[in-house]
Design brief:
Number of helices: 11
Strand content: 5-15%
Largest sheet: 4 strands, antiparallel
Radius of gyration: 19 Å
Strand order of the largest sheet: 3-4-5-6
Oligomer: single chain
Distance between the termini: 13 Å
Order of helices and strands: HHHHHEEHHHEEEEHHH
Structural class: alpha+beta
Shape: elongated
Mean pLDDT: 91
Low-confidence stretches: none
Helix content: 40-55%
Number of strands: 6
C-alpha cells in the first residue's frame, strides 16, 4: 500500500521534533558516535530509529552510573531504569540475560560493549519496548506482532517479535487544521484491527471517521479501493 508512504509524507512536521526522544538524541548523539557498532540506529528522521537510539543513549548513561555506584544502591534510590525478562532484572539491555544477572550480583568485571553487545531487539523485543525505556503504549497483539502508539510522534508502530518495525501508520496529516488528540487509544484501535484484517476500505474509513486523517486524504485513498 502506498497509503503508508503518503501518510508519512503528509504528517504534520512538528510531531517528531517535539518528542522526548528527538531532544535526547540531539543532546546526546555524540554517545552513539563513540560506539561504532551502534551507528546503525543513528537516524533522526525515522521515528522508530529515534526510539531505539533513545534506548541506547539511556543504557549508555546507565552504564556510567553502574561504573560509579553499585547496582543495589542505584536500584534502592530508583536511579535505574529496569524491566524483567526470564525472571531476571535487566538494567543493561545491550547485554544478555546472564550478564545482567551478574550485574545484579555486582559480579560483571567490566562493561566492554564490544565484548558483551547482543542483538538486544531480538533478545528482549516486546519486554523492552513495553518497559520504561520507551514511551510506547501497547494497543493490540496479532500473531507475532504488536501494535504500539507513540503520543509524541502521533504514530502507530507495528513491531514483530524480533523487535523490527513491520509498518508505521502516521496520523494527523497537515490538512487537518485543528487535530483532536483526545482518547487516541480508543479511536485508533478500529484502524489497527482493520489493518490486521487486511481490510483496506475499513482501514481508510476507520482513520477518517475517527478524525485521524483529513477528508482530503480520505478522498484520495478511498478511490484506490476496488
Amino acid at each position: 500500500m502506498k497509503i503508508f508512504q503518503t501518510l508519512k509524507q503528509q504528517q504534520r512536521r512538528d510531531a517528531l521534533t517535539s518528542s522526548r526522544e528527538y531532544k535526547r538524541f540531539r543532546e546526546h548523539y555524540s554517545l552513539l558516535y563513540e560506539h561504532h557498532a551502534l551507528l546503525y540506529f543513528d537516524n533522526d528522521k525515522d521515528g522508530y530509529s529515534l526510539i531505539i537510539a533513545s534506548i541506547i543513549i539511556e543504557v549508555l548513561q546507565q552504564i556510567e552510573k553502574l561504573k560509579q555506584q553499585s547496582f543495589t544502591l542505584l536500584a534502592k534510590e530508583n536511579r535505574l531504569t529496569t524491566f524483567t525478562h526470564l525472571d531476571t532484572v535487566i538494567s543493561v539491555p545491550l547485554f544478555g540475560v546472564s550478564n545482567n544477572l551478574l550485574i545484579t550480583k555486582e559480579l560483571l568485571p567490566n562493561f566492554d560493549l564490544n565484548h558483551y553487545l547482543i542483538d538486544f531487539l531480538e533478545a528482549y523485543n516486546f519486554n523492552l519496548l513495553e518497559s520504561k525505556f520507551t514511551s510506547l503504549v501497547f494497543l493490540y497483539e496479532h500473531k507475532n506482532t504488536r501494535a504500539y502508539y507513540h503520543y509524541d510522534f502521533n504514530t502507530v508502530f507495528i513491531v514483530n517479535n524480533q523487535g523490527r518495525l513491520d509498518q508505521r501508520i502516521c496520523l494527523f496529516d497537515k490538512n487537518i487544521k485543528s487535530p483532536n488528540y483526545e482518547n487516541i487509544k480508543e479511536r485508533v484501535l478500529p484502524a489497527v484491527k482493520a489493518y490486521y484484517a487486511l481490510d483496506k476500505k475499513g482501514f481508510i474509513t476507520a482513520l477518517y471517521t475517527n478524525d485521524l486523517i483529513s477528508q482530503k486524504l480520505y478522498n484520495k485513498f478511498i478511490r484506490t479501493v476496488r
